[in-house]
Amino acid sequence: MATRVVQWREAVDPADLREYDAFGPWIYPVRSAAELPRRFRRYWADLAYAELLLKIPRDRDRSQIQPGDDLYHSVLAVFPERLQVLRAEVPDAGEVERLDVRFTEVVGVVTTANLLQGQWTLLLRNGRRLDVPHPATGGDVMEQVSDLIRPRISGPERRLPTTGQLQPRDHLFGVHLAALADRFGSALALHVDPRKAPCRGGFGWPKVSTGTMIVFTPTELVIVNRGEAARPVFMPNYEVGTVELPYSRLESFAVRPPARWSSFHQLVLRSGMQDYVQLCLNPPDAVAAQLRLLEFLEDI
């Protein structure tokens, strides 16, 4: 009697097979309940009305997965007045955590990339942060999320000064400055710290700076950095971060002198209970002068 050997793909649920075939370090849009990962499917009735719905994969190698595995750790949905994140930290176990943030509570957006890992963060008025880790290859998709919510957290455009523009020598900063000018219509770099300049960290140990650029656009202050402001001399650094702080959400600022054994000034930008502190190797005098022109800001 002849027998037929069944190929393993024929025995797999077609929906699981489609998800398995598509899986990789990519963020996908979700347009139907069938495209939503099984773990989150019971929330479809609410998610169906989102303007933008994304599923974010776990950090797993394809050689370690099989059809039917729990492959996505979170789902992000943008609604007209809020953003919702559904998160399942532990594969195939535990409850799905639901986080809702109204745009009225958002005071800034932070994006970071470090080799293969990325993170998109909302800074909230109550001092908390909403972190959404993702593959660095999905950075352009998360930038679309930032573009979608930017008009909902930014105020009216402001006129930028016509003098004081700095031209960064650092290639990374130059690329970011050009991209910001394209995105916002104009961008003015008023502070640039050099990279690899000798400096001291908090405990006085010799280090080198990683560089910082502070840019004014018509609607927000943008900081471009490489994560930590200083690193040990022989330690490589691959992190790149961008911080977007709308003027309409800022309430006060301060410039503090370097602490003992440190080379860095502190630029403190406050929104409600949220303090964002940027370390600057050189005094950010031009930034402070421009912030003082925003009449609603207090100089603390």
TrEMBL record:
Top-level taxon of the source organism: Bacteria
Protein name: Uncharacterized protein
Origin species: Propionicimonas paludicola
Record lineage: Bacteria, Bacillati, Actinomycetota, Actinomycetes, Propionibacteriales
